[in-house]
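> call design_seq(struct)
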């Protein structure tokens, strides 16, 4: 065995129902006293619950998916104007993403309180959009110093969004198995992530208000993000980033829809990944395991239903080819990529 593996330095707290005390402790440990809370208007009540008596100097609620550059610049200006010394995002990946955009240029520390399964809080990856193009980068300044995972904050996440977001996390696990820096350590995280998400998401759909499934899903989402941050972006992520940037598609749903097509393309040419995915699902094959979970969850299946124009497929193929990661198990060609995107657009999933 010969490989190099980097681990990211971050304190992670899992404590259902205790976000307020855990967050206060996280901020106190950093010795900070001018908090910028970032939360969308819709998550304001959740955020007020967890922020408690923190010394908040500004509430910022301009949260937009895929972080348009102008939105990032306004948040940075607010942070500078109010002399903020720590950023606390409470919300999904879009909210965490805005906090990261602030940290990227200011170096301010982040203590994150995630409320979806996106996993951005556990990565050093930032993303921003500019003129229909999503740009991403890796920078340790954007990695939150601490994360508070409180499953009670996720019980109000609607089932449809929970399913899409949970499958976004499954995609982090799966794609990390053939990503450029895949190694035995991130593969172990990915396998346990798939197992936890498979168990947790089924419970979430059966009992959306129950904490047991919600906690398993959050635990799986964390493992998924660690695997993804460590292994890097594989073909699946490159495709979803291109689609998100070009057509402003909803992030989690796009991942949920594209994932089975990537597994169908890559798994037959990646026997170790195939075995690990199948075993994590306790299924006979990777495609069969994923299909079983998607059926149980009522997963979304068509990019057409998300608003992608059919005549956008050619532009997407061109953009993905320009960014395709090296070492994908199957060589990426205009033909197989076009077939994949046409099937994902139509909603046909091969098993
Ligand atoms: P999101 O943050 O936009 O949230 C989706 C919807 O869920 C929003 O309407 C939000 O208001 C609502 N919501 C969030 N939490 C809720 C709760 N607990 N109860 C009820 N409603 C709730 O979507 P997302 O899928 O979490 O994040 C997507 C973004 O995250 C994308 O921009 C994506 O690029 C980014 N992302 C980044 C990374 C990374 O490593 N940098 C990883 C994953 C995702």
């Amino acid at each position: 065995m010969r490989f190099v593996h980097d681990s990211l330095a971050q304190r992670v707290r899992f404590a259902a129902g205790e976000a307020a005390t855990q967050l206060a402790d996280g901020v106190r440990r950093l010795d900070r006293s001018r908090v910028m809370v970032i939360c969308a208007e819709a998550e304001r009540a959740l955020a007020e619950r967890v922020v408690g008596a923190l010394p908040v100097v500004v509430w910022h609620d301009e949260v937009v998916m895929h972080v348009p550059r102008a939105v990032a610049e306004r948040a940075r200006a607010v942070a500078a104007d109010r002399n903020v010394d720590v950023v606390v995002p409470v919300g999904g990946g879009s909210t965490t993403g805005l906090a990261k955009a602030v940290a990227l240029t200011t170096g301010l520390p982040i203590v994150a309180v995630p409320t979806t399964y996106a996993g951005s809080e556990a990565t050093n990856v930032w993303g921003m959009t500019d003129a229909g193009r999503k740009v991403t980068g890796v920078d340790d300044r954007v990695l939150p110093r601490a994360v508070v995972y409180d499953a009670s904050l996720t019980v109000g996440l609607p089932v449809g969004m929970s399913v899409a977001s949970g499958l976004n996390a499954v995609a982090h696990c799966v794609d990390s198995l053939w990503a450029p820096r895949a190694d035995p350590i991130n593969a172990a995280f990915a396998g346990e992530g798939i197992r936890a998400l498979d168990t947790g998401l089924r419970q979430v759909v059966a009992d959306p208000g129950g904490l047991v499934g919600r906690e398993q899903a959050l635990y799986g989402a964390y493992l998924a993000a660690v695997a993804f941050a460590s292994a890097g972006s594989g073909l699946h992520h490159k495709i979803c980033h291109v689609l998100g940037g070009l057509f402003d598609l909803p992030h989690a749903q796009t991942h949920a829809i594209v994932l089975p097509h990537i597994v169908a393309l890559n798994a037959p040419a990646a026997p170790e990944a195939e075995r690990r995915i199948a075993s994590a699902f306790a299924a006979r094959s990777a495609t069969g395991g994923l299909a079983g979970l998607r059926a149980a969850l009522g997963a979304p299946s068509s990019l057409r239903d998300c608003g992608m124009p059919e005549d956008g497929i050619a532009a997407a193929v061109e953009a993905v080819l320009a960014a395709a990661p090296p070492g994908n198990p199957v060589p990426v060609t205009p033909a197989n990529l076009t077939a994949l995107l046409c099937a994902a657009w139509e909603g046909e999933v091969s098993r």
